[in-house]
Amino acid sequence: MTEQDVTIETLVGRVFSAQHISKLRHWTSSNAAQHAALAYFYDSTDEALDALVESWQGHFDTVVGDVDVPNPEVKNIRDYISDEADWIEANRDEIAQDSPHIANLVDALVAVYTKTKDMLRRT
Question: In terms of residue numbers, what domain contains 13?
């Protein structure tokens, strides 16, 4: 992925991309554990992201702007999810903008990624 500014829109785009990739892998997986892990990821990121974005909008009294969804080439889904978790964690403070409750919601999103990473380790 190319370097870009860290904004809520950047985060949303990256999560949308991860959801898209995980759903496609979910549908095509012949491994039951991987199928279940990616279903968990897709569903849980949807809930976590929705809570984060709606709280972010309420806290900052604005709405999310245009979102670009990257389309990276992914060879290993577990490594990709791990790398994305690392990116979110590294950019937590910039996304949260000094708001502790927004930071907590970013942490909750990261927890979905890391739990999925653990679930995929078992595949």
Answer: 8-121
